[in-house]
Amino acid sequence: MNKQQQAGAGLSRRHFLYGGFILGGGLLAGPVLAGQGCRTTAGDILGPYYRFGAPFLSKLAGPDEPGERLVVSGTVLSADCRTPIPNALVEVWQANGAGLYDTQTPGNFTDKGNFHLRGMLYTDAQGRYRIETVMPGRYPVPPNLPGLEKYAGITRPAHIHFRVMESLHVPVTLQLYFAGDPYIAKDPWASAHPDNVIALEADGEGRRGGFDIVLVRGV
Ligand SMILES: [Fe+2]
């Protein structure tokens, strides 16, 4: 039974935590219910490292990129948590394994330099997206960021930034976090968005996780 079928069977929900680790050759569990009910995806800050105009690609990291391989996939859904949204624009950006972005100039959103570990893609006819990358590294909040001064020095948990938009829905900007990260609890953004924390499943090549994104209808 796929996710849409599950939703149709009355298990309407926003996204799933893939808690099934492969042990002894068998997948122990399928999707685990993350929370009851259908909730639209909560937005989060854009952050200082967003840059407009990333290239269209879904493989953010090439084979030479240091770090553990990570695949994140899911479906962009309308507010009923079951209607897929095709051709939604999904922007993703992240730090490298060492916690560095391709620009270390916060707030330079229109920097047109070389893009690295950033991309844009459209969801397919079933509303699905898939990105291939590496695990992002943690990094401290830089000092003297306007509005964020009091958070300077806080270690951000590993995360990937998303910005998702489609013409009939309200865009959402969020950060995706990973269960078990000890820095989530003290991070003001991660701790406030438990629905945007997913568990990862390990396989021989790296880690994988599923994350569905539910947009608010604009009309
Ligand atoms: Fe970030």
UniProtKB/TrEMBL annotation:
CDD domains: intradiol_dioxygenase
Gene3D superfamilies per the UniProt record, alphabetical: Aromatic compound dioxygenase (2.60.130.10)
Residues that span the membrane, as ranges: 16-34
One family name in Pfam for this protein: Dioxygenase_C
Intradiol ring-cleavage dioxygenases domain sequence ranges: 62-200
Keywords on record: Dioxygenase, Membrane, Oxidoreductase, Transmembrane, Transmembrane helix
SUPFAM superfamilies: Aromatic compound dioxygenase
UniProt record similarity statement: Belongs to the intradiol ring-cleavage dioxygenase family.
Listed name of the protein: Twin-arginine translocation pathway signal protein
Lineage of producing organism: Bacteria, Pseudomonadati, Pseudomonadota, Gammaproteobacteria, Pseudomonadales
